[in-house]
Amino acid sequence: MSMPQISIASLKVSKLIIGGNPFSGISHQSNERDAEMLDYYTADRIKRTLAECERCGINTFIGRADNHVARVLREYWNEGGKIQWIAQSAPERKSLLDNIRMAHKRGASAFFVQGGHTHEICRTWTWEEFAEAIDLIRDLGLPAGAAAHYPEFHAERLRRGIALDFACQCLYRVEGRKGRIHEHVETNELFVHEDRTAALEQIAAMPEPAIAYKVLGGGRMPPRQAFEEVRRYLGPKDAILMGMFTKDRPDMVAENVRLVEEFFTPAAV
User: Fold this and answer.
1) Can you give the pLDDT at residue 172?
2) What is the reported pTM?
């Protein structure tokens, strides 16, 4: 078997995408776990993990549009790496539009507005400003997307006629850090299993390619159990995003790839 791919505009994206939260010290578990990830993931270990992903058939990385991620990727690409970067907005940046321009300049292949950022629409910014951001992403020649911590977000933006090139949907109603990278954050995040069904039903109804994330509940759910559930909702156009902390299991990348190939190749679906 080999890794299936999906299409996002003109991009060919592996069905399994490597996520950058562990590289940035975001565990969604505890401050101590955050620190453990930061200590483990040196630039060298990040690059080795990305290289292992490419060897196993993962051709896409989703990570924050910040200086740390952009710098490590530049080193990785200069050393011969080819993985493509789908950039997500960094909510602590003062200007979303400048953040989009920065990611484009630093080599992003696509850009999406992060779920914590979209959660603030109607609180600190507007749907009109969101549409302006999507227009800028496309004006720069990149596929444009948005993530949501609540399935209602995508239902509402579709009702408003805002089309995307791809959508990202969290499987849990994440209320805590909302993409912030502060070292000491009271997460206040409850991973309630019942949240998953509504999120997966929204993915199944999405007209655009959808990327499911928090599929393992921030490490709270065994991969095989999670994939058995998720495959009932994800179609050929959809993908899975997973952060991987290889300190826990050195073979984690290959193990996850084998599971995705088992559950999501056309013969298996």
Assistant:
1) 85
2) 0.91
